[in-house]
Specification:
By secondary structure, this protein is an all-alpha fold. It has one domain (about 20-145). The protein contains four helices and no strands. The longest helix has about 45 residues, at about 65-110. The protein is rod-shaped.
């Protein structure tokens, strides 16, 4: 998790843009693609009608000076909105892929023998509740392993281990 610094910003900041490219790519596509397609389609239709309006005005020999600024404004709004859509999709993908990356890293640490490894993610990340539940589960497994006697222990050692873990 994070701890705020004196400036109010968190001290754990992601240093690379894509943690898990395939996962983040799927997340970004599923979030941004439908919005981008709808926005580009709507903007295309608006431009088509503006061009038609300008052509009709030209044929009727009428001056419409606001059509060109309208089209440039629409194009600017389209670009800004597309950038915001993809930025927010990337931000959401970080909040999902980052914790999943940490889950995999901690599972690898445990597999390599570090039974004390725990999952730490930022407070703004998604899956925070799952990380807490997973840490509780790891604590439970660790306590259970300590209280379970090994086959090589004698009866006295088993009794001492059981009484120590019950305290």
């Amino acid at each position: 998790m994070t701890t705020p610094t004196d400036s109010g910003k968190t001290k754990y900041k992601r240093k690379i843009l894509l943690i898990d490219k395939p996962l983040q790519g799927r997340i970004i596509k599923s979030i941004a693609w439908p919005c981008a397609v709808a926005l580009v389609t709507a903007s295309g239709l608006m431009c088509m009608f503006c061009f038609r309006l300008a052509a009709e005005a030209f044929e009727a020999d009428v001056d419409l000076p606001s059509v060109a600024p309208l089209m440039f404004t629409a194009a600017g709004c389209l670009i800004v909105t597309l950038v915001l859509i993809f930025y927010n999709a990337l931000k959401i993908s970080h909040r999902v892929a980052g914790p999943l990356y940490r889950f995999r890293a901690v599972m690898k640490q445990i597999q390599d023998g570090d039974a004390d490894a725990r999952i730490r993610i930022r407070k703004t990340d998604y899956l925070l509740e799952f990380a807490d539940s997973m840490n509780e589960f790891l604590e439970w497994v660790e306590k259970r392993e300590l209280s379970t006697p090994t086959p090589s222990q004698s009866g006295a050692e088993q009794a001492a281990t059981a009484s120590a873990s019950s305290e």
